[in-house]
Amino acid sequence: MINEIEVKTIINKSKLPESDYCINPYIGCLHNCQYCYARFMRRFTGHKEKWGSFVDVKINADTLLEKKLSGKHQIKKVLLGSVCDAYQPIEKKYKITEKCVKILIDHQISFSILTKSSLVHRDLKLFEKAGSLISIGISLSFSDDKFRKIFEPRAASVEERIKIIKTLKEYGISNYLFIGPILPLITDVNNIISEIGSLTDEIWGERLNLKCGNFDDVLYAYKKCHISEDWLNLAQSEEFWNKTNYDMIQMCNQIGVPLKGFYKH
């Protein structure tokens, strides 16, 4: 279900350590990731539909952003897509993210984009124009598509995301690899870092968060993958996550790419 809406604000203060503000061009996301943490947004929007089945398009986003940045402001760095994927498929039609990116560049605001969509290829020339203002993050939890198709049914394939990272590197566009959420017994952190870590400027990690209303969907996805129930014990083990964090630090040191952060929720 696609809804066109007008909103009163488009840029909000962020609680994330790497960004002062965030912009979410859409409410909801059609990637339908089973672990998605942003499903809490239904509480604030009145949506009763299953998360992953609807998107609200903020059709006046660019107008609001231009107005905000044309006045006095102290905005230093912005994240596009804190509770949605700014380049999810509907962006191909509405181009809300593209419009916001152009405005940020015009006002010389530093920004980053975290996505798992191949649609970023469309705006490579725009990213080149942004120069040092921009950093593109590619989210990746899988080494192949077997499990990705179950957990992220409508997101870009693993192969497409690796291609994005390689292309960003070729174009000289700052990029980072976001390995998250790390799914116990599924996410092969060592393989992912070994294969593409050296193509990125920095790496981030994130533990699986099962406290945001996603437990039933994650449990169902694991069962479809025919993975041992040991995954749940690992997901609840601080020892497992501390070791994962330590191992990531060691692997990043080996390839000379910094591990900038590890979200433990």
Main attributes?
11 strands, alpha/beta, 8-stranded mixed beta sheet
| Secondary-structure class | alpha/beta
Report the oligomer: single chain
H/E series: EEEEHEHEHHEHEHHEHEHHHE
Mean pLDDT: 94
* N-C termini distance: 31 Å
Which ranges are low-confidence, i.e. pLDDT below 50, for 5 or more consecutive residues? none
Computed CA radius of gyration, to the nearest angstrom: 18 Å
Summarize the structure.
This protein has 265 residues and is α/β, with parallel strands linked by helices. Helices cover 37% and strands 19% of the residues. The radius of gyration is 18 Å and the shape is globular.
Question: In words, what does this structure look like?
Answer:
An eight-stranded mixed β-sheet has the order 2-3-6-7-8-9-10-11. It has a three-stranded mixed β-sheet with strand order 1-5-4, with no helix packed on it. It is built from eleven helices and eleven strands. It has helices at residues 42-45, 61-70, 91-94, 96-106, 124-130, 145-151, 158-171, 189-196, 215-224, 230-235, 238-255; strands at residues 2-5, 11-13, 21-23, 26-27, 55-58, 77-80, 110-115, 134-139, 175-182, 202-207, 259-263. The protein has 265 residues and is of the alpha/beta class.
List the helices and strands and how they pair.
Layout: E1 2-5, E2 11-13, E3 21-23, E4 26-27, H1 42-45, E5 55-58, H2 61-70, E6 77-80, H3 91-94, H4 96-106, E7 110-115, H5 124-130, E8 134-139, H6 145-151, H7 158-171, E9 175-182, H8 189-196, E10 202-207, H9 215-224, H10 230-235, H11 238-255, E11 259-263
Parallel strand pairs: 1-5, 3-6, 6-7, 7-8, 8-9, 9-10, 10-11
Antiparallel strand pairs: 2-3, 4-5
